[in-house]
Design goal:
By secondary structure, the protein is an alpha/beta fold. The chain contains seven helices and ten strands. The chain has a single domain, classed as 3-Layer(aba) Sandwich (Rossmann fold), CATH 3.40.50.300. Helix content is about 35%, strand content about 30%. The chain is globular and about 55 Å long. It binds adenosine-5'-triphosphate and magnesium ion.
Length: about 230
């Protein structure tokens, strides 16, 4: 019997990403290897500009790469058409960003429903699932608020609810606490940790913040285009 703990969510071999300017190549990622198992929280740390967001965007099929093999949730990301990338994103992964990128003209619950509606979940079901997730992040009483009426910490929690509502296998988070003060940041971190324990998704955590990184099961740093364990 397969132990789900051993299922591989991410397998990256020899990843290269470079920008070509005239005849000069600027390598951002230069032979990077990375493996993440189902249910793991893994950090990606490193100085500004080393390629953390670039790696995350490649894993989320938001950005292309030049060389290597990248397999995420059983899908090889080489040579995918734009349509296939969209399907991959819709089915397998969610993002949590520093700027929570809530849609300003929609209420909190509508923002959380959005990924389900895009996946053709019926409205009533989507609303129920979104409400349940907002309840989990402590915002059951703010479902009808618009983003402009929410604090930074509340917006961040709506962003987390939206990322988790589709119950994806993999969550990609880029500085999820980046805009928040210490208390809100800790609150969000504890919340994400509890939800990860409950739903057992894999989580890639890109961050500068050592405290946030300390919640990872495994920590890594990008240096000279490669990923090294910390
Ligand atoms: N379109 C582009 N053309 C050329 N260089 C680019 C392009 N996009 C990104 N870069 C460069 O790639 C490098 C890695 O950028 P990336 O955003 O991945 O860094 P990061 O590690 O996420 O940094 P931060 O911690 O500041 O968010 C940077 O030096 C950036 O200038
Ligand atoms: Mg970045």
């Amino acid at each position: 019997m397969t132990n789900t703990k051993d299922l591989i969510t991410i397998s990256v071999r020899g990843l290269q990403k470079y920008y070509q300017v005239l005849d000069q190549r600027y390598h951002i990622l230069d032979g990077l290897d990375f493996e993440v198992k189902a249910g793991e929280i893994v950090s990606v740390e490193g100085a500004s500009g080393v390629g953390k967001s670039t790696l995350l965007n490649i894993l989320g099929a938001m950005d292309s790469f030049n060389e290597g093999d990248v397999e995420v949730c059983g899908v090889s990301l080489k040579n995918l058409s734009e349509r296939q990338r969209e399907m991959f994103r819709a089915e397998k992964i969610s993002f949590i960003f520093q700027q929570h990128l809530l849609l300003p003209d929609f209420t909190a619950i509508e923002n959380v429903m959005m990924p389900l509606l895009i996946s053709k979940v019926p409205n009533k079901e989507a609303r129920q699932a979104a409400f349940a997730m907002l309840e989990k992040v402590g915002l059951a009483n703010r479902t009808e608020s618009f983003p402009s009426q929410l604090s930074g910490g509340e917006s961040a929690r709506v962003g987390v609810a939206r990322a988790l509502v589709g119950r994806k296998q993999l969550i990609l988070a880029d500085e999820p606490t980046g805009n928040l003060d210490r208390d809100n940041s800790r609150h969000l971190m504890d919340l994400i940790k509890d939800l990860q324990r409950e739903f057992q998704f894999s989580l890639i955590l890109v961050t500068h913040d050592m405290e946030l990184a300390s919640m990872a099961h495994r920590r890594n740093r990008i240096l000279s285009g490669k990923l090294n364990p910390l």
